[in-house]
Amino acid sequence: MNGIRQHDMRDCGAACLATILRHYRSFVPMVKIREIMHVDKNGANMFAVCAAADYFGLEAQGLEGSVTEILKERDEKNVTFPLIAHILTDENQFHYVVVKKIKDKYVHIFDPAKGNRRFKICDFEELFTGFFINLVPKEDFIPEKRTRKPYKKFANIVFKQKTLFSSAILLSVLLAVLSIFTSFAYQTIVDKYILNNNHAMELRDIPIFSKLYIHIEELCHSLPQLFVAVLFIYLSQTLIFALRGIIITYIYKNSSNMLITNYCRKLIQLPIPFFHDRETGEILSRYNDIEEIQNIISGIGLSVIMDVVMAIAGGAVLFVISPELFKIVVIMAIIYALIAFCYRKPIGRISRSIMEADSRLMSKMKETIDGIESIKATCAENKSEEKLSSRIDEYIRMMKRGTLISLSQSTIMSLSQSMGNLAILYFGCSFILNGTISLGTFISFETLIFFFLSPLQNLLSMQITLQQAFVAADRLNDVMENKTEDEVFKGKETFKSNEHTCLKVTDLSFSYGYREPVLQRLNFVALEGEKIAVVGKSGCGKTTLFHILGMIESDYEGCICINDRNIQDIDKTFYRRHVMYVPQESVIFAESFKENILMGETADNDKLKKIIEGCHLEDVISQHDNGIEGILEENGKNLSGGQKQRIAIARALMKNPKILLLDESTSHLDAEMEKSIFDFISREFADTTCLFSTHRESLINLCDRKVHILNGKVV
Known about the structure:
25 helices, six-stranded mixed β-sheet, six-stranded antiparallel β-sheet, Cathepsin B, Chain A, globular, alpha+beta, Rossmann fold
């Protein structure tokens, strides 16, 4: 069974389902499975796996039992292999694997993290949690055909630079031809001028080069002239090599620009739940994967084409020179290919493991850096260092294993090459002694072996880089093939800005993936200008409600209307300009105060000054040498929590919203300042409907009324 490998540790359920679907000849992309399964930072539970399987046409049944009971049910035709089993790994992590078969006291599995494995039944039972999913195709099951072309977007990058690629290839061909001429020049020097053997095989014996060789021979009547010609060839090669290098540099620059630009553009266009469901380190590690793809496009792409041409041309010339010696070279090439084939799967597995370990390390490093204050405050340095060291050790262990695998492959190839060279030398000497070939011809053959075996070795050595690039491309496609916000929020309608605002929420229900519902049939109405406190215990769903109202979450049930228009029918950008969401912890960018407040918008100075004063930011700004043009540190590290919240509120008010959603956005302010900002909003933005998520009685008392959420409902 050719299983589908996971891209991250939380993808195991999606990878197992993709493997089962492929077993039944249904080729569903991992991105699509992950979307339907609602894989988040916690992975996916068994219900989610079953629901996704049902969506793709498989009848899924979650069961519990021992391996013995599974075998019994299999014999009674109640259980079918392959199935998905739930295990607890040696690292104490829950994990899904595909059980392919149980035979001869062994359990044969496909582990999406490690590939095909085999356990004794007793050893597997120690890992097995007892839960498994039996999957069989429904009667109306229609396999999904392989229509996806995951690497097409990367091929398009090459196509857009076809002129540069063609130029580089032509220059490479010219370099190869000049190198072959140099080799035969050495033969002529040895046979014609040193040994005075004019009957030895020369380049003109090869039809494709005969006419060209005659012209060269006419120009080189003597040994000095031949040396001058070779010198001219060397100078030409140097110039051509430099020119080709410049072209390849431009290809690399253009490829990098397209890859990085497309990735960043796509990242910005993705919906916010995409970022909620993934660790930041995972997303950043995808950016690092771009380098692997750059290498294959700019360097390896050209090398593959050139090496194939060189291997064919070099092989043809070698065959004409000496068919007997060429047989030995072919045997060497076959041995190289067999070695590369044997190492294909180990290299693929370790490449993926290295990238996953790198992703986990990056996530842990970011988490440690972001939480350094809490770590210091709780004297948890040693524990944090221990956890970080564990990820570092894991990454280094994977790198070491990968290096050893690569080293063993290159060592075996080197040994086979040495043995092959020895065989060529032995038989070559024999042929020279019996007069089959001349010494010059043998020297020429030895020189030209490089033009056959070296390209072949390059092609085979690219195996590691190619596999790493394909793994990187698959991981990058996790981002590139996700739906953008425009594909999620498809509304195109607008509403008039002078209309009286009426927000109506009807039977709103929401759950994260297939987990317990957070909101259940929630109902309330907010009229224009109302200032409403949304209250409830922590975790009751206030933030989730604000995310939905702010058009961040989209997969909900029920209806939300503004002026009798369903918000799903309203244009996303238009909606967000009129309905502003301010989270408890807003990000402050490493830009000026002014840029952080305006966020790319233009505004008259009077309005900006009024909002700065209303949010009590004038004292904060005046403390900076450059005033409102002063540059803030990353995420406002030189600001207090309350100061950052005031900037975030000012940022929202600059948009003059119809509805303002403040999700505990004043929690870091003292009661007096909170009241002052509330009064400012009530006075200057009287027509703006405001919803305040809060736990403070002082703010609740300032509001017109409150909406109390309990168990996902308004009470």
